[in-house]
Protein: Hydroxypyruvate reductase
Organism: Actinomadura macrotermitis
Amino acid sequence: MRVLLHYDMEHTAAGLDIVTCPEHDDERFASLLPDAEVVWHVLRPLTAADLDRAPRLRLIQKLGTGVNTIDLDAAAERGIAVANMPGTNAQAVAETALLLMLAALRRVVPFDARTRAGRGWPADPSLTGGELAGRTVGLLGGGQIATLLRGMLTAIGARVLFTTRTPRPDDPAWRPLEDLLRASDVVSVHIPLTEETHHLLNAARLALLPPGAIVVNTARGAVIDEKALLEALASGHLAGAGLDVFEQEPVPAANPLLALDNVVVMPHAAWLTRETWARYFAVAEENCRRLVAGEELLHRVR
Ligand SMILES: NC(=O)C1=CN([C@@H]2O[C@H](COP(=O)(O)OP(=O)(O)OC[C@H]3O[C@@H](n4cnc5c(N)ncnc54)[C@H](OP(=O)(O)O)[C@@H]3O)[C@@H](O)[C@H]2O)C=CC1
Ligand SMILES: O=C(O)C(=O)CO
């Protein structure tokens, strides 16, 4: 079975003929699509035009959780199955969210730059940080990532609140979104990007956060209105942000958020650990086996 791994990563597996293609190499991707029976998809959008070049394609296997980068209707129209693998990267993302909130609270970006430039010592008192212990952290989402992060934050001594679409009155930490925002010193986003969640954190909702709050996003850029975020940071209402994801990816170098030293950034790499890859390949190979055997796929989305 011909598998097209759409990432710059070599991998072999018994019974699978795996070819790889870096995500930025559109020409190679187009040339490999006609023979692909399975695409192992990471993040580069998979469009109807791509699928038109792939007459043998039977399965789009998302390596990870969010399927917003796949044209699901186009896949369904062409009889191509789509599956994801929720949870396989949850530990990595939860740890990254924790890392970004600590980095923002402790001003790692300016400290790092000044230390490298030989201007780090003595440490500038204007960069005095804050501790997570004792602060209230509001999580948007109560799924696999938010649940792991909640455990980590509780161990550190933070007070954790969370919100979901479906109220969870049995859990004393659950709050309606606006109540959660009013109470949160740090807010961290862990919900999918859908029509409903697009710009969920807009100017009005960001204004509900207490002055000096920190926003962390390891979910999808467009859940936050980036212009409103920039204004809230520029006005000083927000003290900082930790961003792994952006409205436009790859994030353009001219994005004004990148010029702020109270914003710590990553290139949508929260998931990127060796352990995540091992889990990705285990599920992806199992779904290829199931496809060949005519068995029900794991985590079929469509
Ligand atoms: N940066 C990265 O590398 C990665 C990013 N991600 C992103 O993180 C997201 C979360 O992942 P994960 O925790 O595994 O997903 P889950 O599916 O386990 O959890 C999603 C949570 O979002 C909640 N939710 C959905 N819609 C809304 C809404 N409108 N308002 C409030 N809550 C909502 C759901 O609860 P309910 O249905 O009750 O509302 C659920 O608790 C993914 O969708 C993906 O976009 C994931 C992995 C890697
Ligand atoms: O799993 C996800 O949704 C990611 O963003 C990483 O690919």
Summary: The chain has two domains: 2-88+273-293, 90-265. Residues 64-66, 86, 89-90, 93, 140-146, 163-166, 190-193, 196-197, 218-220, 244-245, 268, 270-271 surround NDP (ligand 1) (CB under 6 Å). Residues 61 and 284 are 7 Å apart (CA to CA).
